[in-house]
Design brief:
By secondary structure, the chain is of the alpha/beta class. Among the domains are: 159-269, Leucine-rich Repeat Variant; 273-374, no CATH class. It is built from 16 helices and ten strands. The strands form three sheets. The protein has a six-stranded mixed β-sheet, with helices on one face. The longest helix has 24 residues, at 204-227. It starts with a helix and ends with a strand. The model has no long low-confidence stretch (mean pLDDT 91). Bound molecules: zinc ion (ZN). Residues 157, 234, 236-237, 239, 259, 261-262, 264 line the site of zinc ion.
């Protein structure tokens, strides 16, 4: 019997402290054989054992533990509930988002705090509104965790909108909390929104001072961004930014880079080249300073837009390259803000031996800069 088997056996021991020690040890050993027995231990009669089982399942990283841990969010013992929340954060499975949002109103502050943390790990924008509410929590630690989480979610440009909306909430605590969170986002869109908010709720002098603080925090970041300009990219829309100017006082203005699609100025730096890829998969990857974006979603049969510098069409099973190339040309052409020169500037490389009909091949040659092949 090896160590893992030994501890699994101890999970059935008569002494509860032997069982909880075994659960703890199994978490550190990270062996998937322990998943089933640990899920069973989530139903142990002693809360300590259930806690360590929840923690261990978070360490093991097996998706099959997600549902049992969601169930443990309803445990009668607060420490089990909070450890289950943390474990779900560590597992980062989107199934946990809605159940966690439900327990952010738990009667125990410890549970609320760990839940706010877990929602940050999951990074799902459905959590923005409940987290704004949690900024008004009676407990300081919960408020702090919620603020930290919102700041993290704020890296996602779509977080600005729900926060902006919350500035108009009838509950002043929610308004203030949203303003607090917005003031920490690296996004120039918060400036006009907060300016209006401060103007409405504070005296002129105080309002100006508050806005000045926000700008003073944003300005160095924007100046740095401008220095990185050719390598900036909005990682949500896959677009190169444009430069805008904002008046920030009677005599001064600030240049800043902004995504022409979503309007965020929270941009990725050091993306030298964007490569569009057709290979039947979805999502993007960054290697060194190159971003590879999958342009064709074969399930949705749709194209993703990106400001690409070159295109790679790879050999993959089950792809209709004639349909894909047609849609790709339309998408890149229609949605680009780069004008007529965009497509003729992009080189295309065929990798492996993609099954491209002759007509499609000549379409590629007409529309793009050149077509080369690589085995
Ligand atoms: Zn964008």
């Amino acid at each position: 019997m090896d160590k893992v088997e030994e501890y699994i056996k101890r999970l059935e021991d008569e002494e509860w402290n032997v069982r909880s020690d075994a659960a703890r040890a199994l978490g550190n050993l990270v062996d998937s054989r322990a998943v089933g027995p640990l899920i069973k231990a989530l139903g142990d009669e002693v809360a300590y054992v259930r806690r360590y089982a929840a923690k261990a399942l978070g360490q093991l990283g097996e998706p099959s533990a997600v549902e049992p841990l969601i169930k443990a969010l309803g445990d009668r013992e607060k420490r089990v509930r909070s450890d289950a929340a943390r474990a779900l954060g560590n597992l980062s499975d989107p199934r946990a988002v809605e159940p966690l949002i439900k327990v952010i109103g738990d009667r125990e502050k410890r549970v609320r705090r760990h839940t706010a943390w877990a929602l940050g790990k999951l990074g799902d924008l459905r959590a923005v509104a409940p987290l704004i509410k949690a900024l008004g929590d009676e407990d300081g630690d919960v408020r702090k965790e919620a603020a930290k989480t919102l700041e993290k979610l704020g890296d996602n440009p779509r977080a600005v909108e729900p926060l902006n909306k919350a500035l108009g909430d009838e509950d002043w605590m929610i308004r203030e909390s949203a303003a607090y969170a917005l003031a920490r986002l690296p996004d120039m869109r918060v400036v006009p929104a907060l300016g209006k908010y401060y103007e409405k709720h504070f005296e002129k002098e105080k309002a100006e001072k508050l806005l000045r603080e926000v700008i003073d925090r944003l300005a160095p970041l924007q100046r740095e961004n401008i220095q990185h300009l050719p390598r900036l990219l909005c990682i949500t829309c896959y677009r190169r930014p444009i430069v805008k100017k904002m008046k920030i006082g009677p005599l001064s203005s600030l240049k800043y880079a902004v995504c022409p699609q979503c309007g965020t100025s929270a941009l990725a730096r050091d993306i030298r080249e964007v490569v569009g890829v057709v290979d039947g998969r979805t999502g993007h990857e960054i290697h060194d300073d190159t971003l590879y974006v999958r342009l064709w979603d074969n399930t949705a049969q749709e194209c993703v837009y990106a400001d690409i510098d070159r295109l790679e069409i790879r050999e993959a099973d089950g792809l209709r390259y004639d349909i894909i190339v047609n849609k790709l040309i339309l998408t890149l052409h229609d949605r680009s803000g780069r004008g007529q020169d965009y497509l003729p500037g992009i080189p295309v490389q065929l990798l492996g031996n993609p099954d491209i009909p002759l007509g499609t091949r000549s379409l590629l040659e007409q529309q793009f800069r050149e077509v080369t092949e690589k085995q």
